[in-house]
Each structure stands twice: as structure tokens, then as C-alpha cells.
Amino acid sequence: MSKSIPLIHKAAAITQIEALKPYIKDIWPIVHYSKLPIYLDSTSAQFIPYRAFSRLLQAAFEQLPHQAFIAFIQRGATSYSKQIAHNLKQNNKVNSLARLTDLLPIERVSSKHSTSSKYHSEFSLAFTLEDVEPFNFVGELYAIAVAHSYLIQQRSDIKKPSKYHLVSQDKSGLDKLSISTDTPQFMGQTSIALFYPSTVKQHSTTLDLHWEKQVQPFSIQASCALESYIGRQDLRLEDFSDIIKIPTRTIQRHLAQDGTSFRQIKESLNIAFAKRVMKQRNVSISEISAHLGYAEPSQFIRAFKKSENVTPLQWSKIHD
């Protein structure tokens, strides 16, 4: 059976950390606890582990008053969803719910527009998230907030949901948040779903659309999850395993099936990081090697030469 590493775009963490600042004076302890990579603004990496992001949400859930937590989630999710719409425009991509599968760890998503009479029309969106137990409850709340904000930006026929479904059965979480019962919530469902009254009256009885995320090879997922830590935190396999909550042997087995290893992926990312730094900044080889976690510059030089057949200094002169 294939294994997956739930990922989310780094912009989600950047906007959510920014949304946390009005409520927590010193955010670094909570960021450190969540095991999120640091200085995400300056990394070329695009994705981070969704589990680490959900751990941040969980920590905020436990520390903030319920009204502050709801505002925190909504503020970050709204900001992130606007970036989704902006990315669509920048990339000249057709506005599509399928884009959500690129920016949320969604396995599959479907939308349905049904008309039961000429007076009643309903739009619904249903999706399943990749598992991040024990943080599924806060992860689902965040995904609902992102999806809702995204939908109302894309569609003029919907406003407020009439109900929504959660897969999580953590009723105590909803009770703690004192979420308004004006919008019914149904827990323990087979998928997360949002339902809206729609002003569009279609002649057809139903209109169904479905998308399913294409599963990437495990080695690519691991590389995406690890890249944001390169040059910031020197992760061992055991550290990486703890962040994504997949046993080390399972990681090794799946990477071996893809013809690679954790060490090979990490060294490849290290070399790519070193090349970018040498192109963009005037820094010494010893500084780069220290950032990448090498005990001695000579270790980094050997690894670089093994990969590129030239030393870092020679490569820098060639590409100056």
C-alpha cells in the first residue's frame, strides 16, 4: 500500500503565524513546538508537512480563548485563500475547485449543484483530507475555513453555508469553541462537506464534478517535506520521522522502492541550497557548510564534488 506525506503550501503557515501575532506576544515557542520550519519567507521550498502545521493549530486551540481561536483560524484561512485566487490569476489557470487539491492536503473533492424545485437550489462541496491524527479536528476546521473563503470568492451565488459535515468525532472540540448552532454541524461523516443555498436555478436536476489528486512518488513527497528545513534545521532521519509521524523503517523502505534514500535526498537538497546561496550572496564555504549541518567544511566540499565533479569554489567561479 502506498504511503503519503500530507503537505500544504508554505503560504498557509506564513499567513497563519502572522494571524497569531495579535494573540500571542512571543510566537516562537509555539512555532518551535509545532516543528514547523523557520524563516519560510526566504526559502525556495513551496510545501511544508501538514502535520507540523496542524500541530501549530492545535497548540493555538489549546492556548487561545475560543473566540480568539475562531478569529485566528478565519483570519489566516481568508488570507491564504486570497493567495490561492491570486496564484490562479498569476498562472493563468482556469478557476477550478481542482486547484484546492494543490493547496490543501485533499485526496479527492467533488461539487454538486442540485435543484429540487424552481424555488430551491443547493450547492455543495465535499472532500477528504489526508490523515494527520491526532490533529484531524483542527485540520478539518482550517480546511473548511479555507474552502469557504475560496468558494465565496469564486462564486457569486452562495454566501453562508446552511450546514457542514466533519469527519472528526471530537464533539468536545466543538463544545469548547461554542460554535453557533445557527449552522448545523454533523460529525462522524464520511467526508468533510459544506452546503449552501444557491441563487442559481438550473434546469438540470443535478450537476456533479469530481477531482482526485494524483499521488506523487513517496520520494518526491519526502523531498518536498524536507526541503523547507534545509539550511535552517539539520534534520536526521529520526527527526524527520518524528515530524511526519512515519516510522524510520517505513520511510527507508518506501524510499528504497523509489531507488533512493533519505541521505541521498538530503544531500541533493543540500547541494541545491548551496548553489542558490553561492549565486545570490557573498558567503564563505564554511558558512554554507555550517548552515547545512556539516561538522567540517571538508565534508561539505567532498559531498559537493561527488555530486558536481567540481569543488564549490570552482563551481562558483564557473557560474559567477
From TrEMBL:
Residues 220-318 form the HTH araC/xylS-type domain. It holds the Pfam family HTH_18. GO terms for molecular function: DNA-binding transcription factor activity; transcription cis-regulatory region binding. Keywords: DNA-binding, Transcription, Transcription regulation. GO terms for cellular component: cytosol. PANTHER family: HTH-TYPE TRANSCRIPTIONAL REGULATOR GADX (PTHR47894), HTH-TYPE TRANSCRIPTIONAL REGULATOR VQSM (PTHR47894:SF1). This is AraC family transcriptional regulator.
